[in-house]
Design goal:
The chain is an alpha+beta fold. It has two domains: 101 residues, D-Ala-D-Ala carboxypeptidase, C-terminal domain (Peptidoglycan synthesis regulatory factor (PBP3), Domain 2); 244 residues, Beta-lactamase. The chain is 29% helix and 27% strand. It has eleven helices and 19 strands. The strands form six sheets. It has a five-stranded antiparallel β-sheet, with no helix packed on it. A five-stranded antiparallel β-sheet has the order 3-2-10-9-8, with helices on both faces. Helix 5 crosses helix 6.
Length: 380
């Protein structure tokens, strides 16, 4: 027999309420395209977000993503030495003037990419990870496809497009890549740096993202500019546990880029919040029938922190289904029930599995017989 209980009036998080805002609520966007996402992948606003445009150095968020994935998987280490090739050293635009044969740690290379937007270092890292920039670009495009980026074609590791070959992407796709990049918290150690040095203090880096000093909570991620692309940015900021990503593409100047990104972020922080449901009431012990233990603990899957419209929080409730008891044997991790987050319209917006916290073996015949004998002796 199953029991269904309602925890009334429970204010919870983890709810994806994805109502896209009207343009009038955000304000007029001057850039060609824009998108606002929460770090959990919830789209909060879009403006021409599927238009294919050049991202310039915002391309480097994919370069950094592949690098962080390699680091976090153990494929490479931040202490690894990366050698600059003649090709990497030949890059123009923003750079650290890498010399052919010069070696820097991967840590320094990532710092130069994230803070100084170093085109030469982006190529050097690409070659280090994949053997050549061309092979790395193939990995970039494959990863973009995996992330659901339908409007993206990378042609290089740094966004420094030349000739007829042009990197094309969309505000929507850059937001998806940014969301994935933020799943690697270590990247913030680089993108949030205002000023730092490399080469034992001999070379100073200043962050190209001036919003780090102008916008409260700014943590990254990457700016970009070439004349064909205009001014672009993927701007991530965190306040009160809510992380938002504002993507702006093809702004006519730096001030407009900053203004549009700020408008998007302001709208997001004014109207949304991050919450995590407290499911402790669903996790009390359950009796076990014919088990070597009388009961088993109940644990919940991590519901995560999700994005909720502030004006809808009060209407959220949580219900849970779980049995009155379990029959032995019980296996640790097996699902024994479900907790559900329900919105004001009665729709289930998130389900979280309830699981057995430990193994409980079934009593054998001899165990049962022994228990009966002990009970009889106590009764006598």
């Amino acid at each position: 027999m199953w029991i269904k209980r309602m925890l009334c009036g429970f204010v919870c998080s983890g709810v994806l309420l994805t109502q896209v805002a009207a343009l009038a609520e955000v304000g007029e966007i001057q850039s060609k395209a824009a998108a606002l996402y929460a770090a959990d992948g919830t789209e909060l606003y879009s403006y021409h977000a599927d238009e294919k445009l050049q991202p310039a150095s915002v391309t480097k968020i994919m370069t950094m993503l592949l690098a962080m994935e390699a680091v976090d998987s153990g494929k490479v280490s931040l202490s690894d030495m990366v050698t600059g090739s003649a090709y990497a050293a030949s890059m123009g635009g923003t750079q650290i003037w890498l010399k052919e044969g010069e070696q820097l740690t991967l840590d320094e290379m990532l710092k130069a990419i994230a803070v100084g937007s170093a085109n030469d270092c982006a190529v050097a890292v690409a070659e280090h990870l994949a053997g050549s920039e061309q092979a790395f670009v193939e990995q970039m495009n494959a990863r973009a496809k995996e992330l659901g980026c339908t409007g993206t074609t990378f042609v290089n590791a740094n966004g420094l497009d030349t000739g007829d070959q042009k990197t094309l992407t969309t505000a929507h796709d850059l937001a998806l890549i940014s969301v994935e990049l933020l799943r690697h918290p270590g990247i913030i150690d680089y993108t949030s740096i205002w000023m730092d040095t490399i080469r034992d203090g001999a070379f100073t880096l200043a962050n190209t993202n001036k919003m780090l000093r102008k916008y409260d909570g700014m943590i990254g991620l990457k700016t970009g500019y070439i004349s064909e692309a205009g001014f672009c940015i993927s701007a991530a900021a965190e306040r009160d546990g809510l992380t938002l990503i504002a993507v702006v593409m093809a702004a006519p100047d730096k001030d407009t880029r900053t203004a549009d990104a700020s408008q998007l972020l302001n709208y997001g922080f004014a109207n949304y919040a991050a919450y995590t449901p407290d499911l402790s009431s669903a996790c009390g012990d359950l009796p076990v029938v014919l088990g070597k233990a009388d009961s088993v603990g109940v644990m919940c899957d991590d519901p995560g922190s999700m994005t909720v419209q502030k004006d809808q929080v009060s209407g959220l409730t949580v219900s849970y289904d779980r049995p009155e008891s379990l029959d032995a044997p019980v296996t640790k991790g097996e699902q024994i029930g479900t907790a559900k987050v329900i919105d004001g319209n009665g729709a289930v917006v998130r389900e979280v599995a309830l699981r057995a916290a430990e193994d409980v073996e079934k009593q054998s015949f001899l165990d049962v017989l022994g228990a009966l004998c002990r009970a009889a002796s106590w009764g006598g």
